Amino acid sequence: MKTQHLHIQGRVQGVWFRESMRSEAERLGVTGWVRNAPDGSVEAVVQGPDAAVDMLIAWAHAGPPQARVECIVLTDAQGHFSSFEKRTE
Q: Could you list the residue range(s) of the whole structural domain that residue 8 is in?
C-alpha cells in the first residue's frame, strides 16, 4: 500500500482535471482526494496498491486532454481513505 501527495502545476484548473482524476482513480481502485489549490495548481492524495498508485501518477503527468502539466512534486503522505473524492476546498 502506497500513499502519495501530488502537487500538480501547470494549466490544470478549468480543464476537468479533478473530475478526470476522480474517474481514473476509481477505475484503478485508488482512494484519496483531489482539489484545486489557491495558487492555480491541483493537489491530490492518492492511496492504493503500489502499481495502481504509480499508474495514476503516470496519468497525472498528462491529465485530461486540455491540461498542460508542467511539474508534479511528489511526497509521502499518510491517512486512510475509503473512496476517492473531489474536494472543493
A: 2-79
